[in-house]
Amino acid sequence: MNKELRKAVIAGNWKMNKTPSEAKALIEELKPLVKNASCDVVICVPYVDLAVAIETCKGSNIKVGAQNMHFEKSGAFTGEISAQMLKEIGIEYVIIGHSERRQYFNETDITVNKKVKFVLENNIIPILCVGETLEQREQGITAELVALQIKNALLDITTKQAKKIIIAYEPVWAIGTGKTATCEQANEVNGIIRSTLAKIYDENTANSITIQYGGSMNASNADELLSKEHIDGGLIGGASLKANDFTVIIKAASK
Ligand code: PGA
After folding, report:
1. Is 145 helix (H, G, I), strand (E, B) or coil?
2. Ligand 1 mutation target, pool 235, 241, 248, 249, most atoms within 8 A of CB
3. Atom 3 of ligand 1: nearest residue by CA position
4. How many CA atoms lie within 13 A of 124 on its CB side?
5. 171 ligand 1 Cβ < 6 A
6. Mutate to test the pocket of ligand 1, among 9, 10, 13, 248 (most ligand atoms within 8 A of CB)
7. Which residue's CA is the closest to the ligand 1 atom numbered 2?
8. C-alpha dihedral (200, 122, 34, 176), degrees to nearest 10
9. Residue 107, SS3?
10. 20 to 30 A Cα–Cα from 33, which one of 9, 108, 156, 178?
11. What is the chain's pLDDT, residue by residue, as a tens digit (255 residues)?
């Protein structure tokens, strides 16, 4: 982390977990534990939990995000949710292009780019996910692949807009597997992302953008990961479902 240059942001990605009553209980447990955090705290919850999460987080330092949205304003898209709908209920963040959505729901670099544009137009902060699979890492194409994902996702995004984005580097092989990228691997790719941003925009813009790491980040490895220059926070899956573990990570980012 380099808190002089950019914000530290810890975001929980609850994925398809917690009913509304379970969500309320977890947030109530979390609120007193994280109230003194000196990093931004976000929880990205399932659609049906958004309203109760907004209500329960009121007056606290916990912000609420969604995990996906459609790139059109409205229309015949059965089962989808638009950015306007999220905005109206008070959502401040949305995860875009998570690898599970790329893998299971046909999300592509093109739809990711459309979504990033639309989210920004609606004044919601996108948490843009990129990352390589194990095969791609073994082929030695991680750097090119991640740079390409970034370039595609940010096509036609202005410098002013880019400054609002959060990027999450999530190696697919580390998600939910218990395998974490080493601090060096994570910092190296986050650094590649930053130099890609500097090429697309400029050095100052690149230095101001929060780049998280995600993939089996937990209470025991967060401290070391977050001590690295280019790791400005985390996108946390499994460990965000346990108030105590999530709190340890938030404390590590609050140092
Ligand atoms: P994990 O998930 O922490 O459970 O590996 C991270 C993510 O998918 O965002």
Report:
1. helix
2. 235
3. 237
4. 34
5. no
6. 13
7. 237
8. -60
9. coil
10. 178
11. 888 899 999 999 999 999 999 999 999 999 999 999 999 999 999 999 999 999 999 999 999 999 999 999 999 999 999 999 999 999 999 999 999 999 999 999 999 999 999 999 999 999 999 999 999 999 999 999 999 999 999 999 999 999 999 999 999 988 878 778 899 999 999 999 999 999 999 999 999 999 999 999 999 999 999 999 999 999 999 999 999 999 999 999 998
Among the four given CATH numbers 3.30.70.100, 3.20.20.70, 3.30.2110.10, 1.10.287.1080, the one describing domain 9-253:
3.20.20.70
Ligand 1 in reach of 176 Cβ (< 6 A): yes
Give the length of the chain: 255
41 φψ region: left (φ > 0), alpha (ψ -120 to 50), beta (else): beta
Three-state DSSP string of 84-97:
HHHHHCCCCEEEEC
List 130's β-bridge partners, or say none.
169
| Cα angle, residue 13 at apex, residues 99 and 120 outer, rounded to 5° | 75
Cβ pair 26, 249 in contact under 8 A = no
Which one, of 120, 126, 187, lies nearest residue 160 by Cα? 120
What whole-number distance in Å separates Cα of residue 194 and Cα of residue 238?
27
CA triple 255-2-229, angle to 5 deg? 105
Who contacts 195 (Cβ-Cβ below 8 Å, separation ≥6)?
Answer: 206
